[in-house]
Amino acid sequence: MTAVEPLLRLDHITRRFGGLVAVNDVSFEVAPNEVKGLIGPNGAGKSTTFDLVTGVRPPSSGEIFFKGERITDQPAYTRSPMGMARTFQIVRLFNGLSVVENVQLGLHPKFPDGLLRSLANLASLGAQERASRKRAMELLAFVGLADRAGHRVDQLTLGQLRLVDIARALAADPVLLMLDEPAAGLNDAETRNLGEMLAVLKKRGLSILLVEHDIDFIMKACDTIVVMDHGMKIADGTPSEVSQDPDVITAYIGRRAANAAA
Amino acid sequence: MTGNGIPEAPRAPTIVPVFCILALGIVLPFVLTSGFHIRLAMLVWIYTILCMGFNLLYGYSGQISLGQPAFYAIGAYAFAMLQVKLGWSAIPALVGSLVLVAMISLLIGLPLLKLRTHYLAMATLAFMLIQNGVANRWIEFTGGQSGIGVPPLEWGGEQLGRTGIYFIVLGLAALVLILHDFMIRSHLGRAMQAIRDDEMAAEALGVRVRRFKLRILVLSSVMAAIAGVCFGITSLRVDPSLSEFHVLVSMLTIVVVGGLGTRFGPILGSVIVVLLPQLLTQFGELETVMYGLFILIFLLFLPHGLAGLLERWNWFGARSADRVAEAPAREAREKA
Known about the structure:
The structure holds 2 protein chains of 2 kinds. Chain A folds into 2 domains: 1-23 and 31-83 and 174-262, P-loop containing nucleotide triphosphate hydrolases (Rossmann fold, 3-Layer(aba) Sandwich); 96-173, no CATH class. Chain A has helices at residues 46-54, 79-82, 99-105, 114-120, 122-142, 158-170, 188-203, 215-221, 239-244, 246-261, and strands spanning 8-17, 20-30, 35-39, 61-66, 69-70, 84-86, 176-180, 207-211, 224-229, 232-237. The model of chain A has no long low-confidence stretch (mean pLDDT 89). Helix content of chain A is 40%, strand content 23%. Chain A is built from 10 helices and 10 strands. Chain A is an alpha/beta fold. Chain B has a domain at 16-244. Chain B contains 15 helices and 4 strands. In chain B, strand 2 (154-155) and strand 3 (158-159) form a beta hairpin. In chain B, helix 7 packs antiparallel against helix 10. The longest helix of chain B is centred in the middle third of the chain and has 27 residues, at 209-235. The two termini of chain B are 25 Å apart. At the A-B interface, helix 2, helix 3, helix 4 and helix 5 of A face helix 7, helix 8, helix 9 and helix 10 of B.
């Protein structure tokens, strides 16, 4: 490798579901401290790509590298300890736990694994638990929800749930944050707030890969954008490059413009 | 909301109530004079041990195994047979039976934990029926209906008295109670509840879901086996009735009445389920009807069980995650 090694590299990734090719020979990279958007019309293969990177399912062919390590067929639980954290499109918080406990779960891989190892580390476990609570409270304060720490998650609004999800992902101190449609269902003020938060995270050195439908949001938030259509990558570049790309205009923005004109 | 203004996290529960319960357990044999009452107290502890394992597995981790009575019975049988047939003494027999149950549950769990909900329940129930069938019918090996006698415990060459046996049962119950409480209050409890609520999200956060579920199954089976050994040393006989349906029904009643997925549900439920029939004997023939009525009332008015009720009143000093729902309502009331 010359120059800067990419943080995340997708190398000719293909995923088939029976006869359907959901992701077709897609390659792109996320550089350190880059905010990258992944957009495309419905059914373009964005979510499948997201699932392949986060280890929900392996690709049919191609390779994925994270921090130079091959993670193509590593299961999902290996991502968090490596420094990759994710949020979910449909918020998946744990309803039986309080808000702060949900965030603490983001720190789970740092705790001793299993009952026996926990008992062996009993002396330091109390301090670790208190530290994890403190860290979780800091993250809740960062997303502006510290006063909700003791609440059950089913008492929060959708906007608040998304913020808890982000706080939980940040708990693992990731270097790459994967956000699956973080602005979906948010109102304008909440979306603005989210945009500012991502800018702060970038300033702190994080890399972010986000799948999003909200074009205005993604144009403002991202350094570079990958556009997908019918499972294939059709463009990759800065927001201004991408928005002038003829393929993108036909496949996506053109379609919207046509719809708007109609 | 930034800077030095980070509020304190809500207070975490402490182990104090566990020690209170154990202190009560230590005092009990000096208060109870009749042997019958001590026997009932031991039965409460035995059911508490059995149901704590089930509580971790189902209440906290969401894996419904109806095969717990089978592990209860296997633990008891192994404890008896290792002594009677192989001539082991009591402590090696205890360890041996727990190791055996751990291995069996591991073998059962490997294929079965791929199943979920009803399928897991049915498969584990089938395992219990098979175990019960073997205990009943393989007469040369298991003694059939009449079972196997358990040699009475000895201490310094003398047979241990009723109080001595009580304290051994209490000691094992204390061990399980402290383990159960440690699991719930630590990061392990959080991981269990995460698996119960959303396996995919738990996995994404670095919880090794399949391996964790298997470990919980083994742990809860070993707890069932400890309960079985306790039954063996108190009744001096193990027979197929240990894994019959009434044990399963008692176990389910205890967790529902006590409160599923709560810290003190198993012990509260065990007290009710063991003592209630004794209090109801005065109703003569109507005893069973009254018992059923009581359970029905519990289900209708206390869906979170007794523990849910006590935690709502904040009896244990700290809110459990299960009950934080009450907090905003209380805040609203205080503001008004």
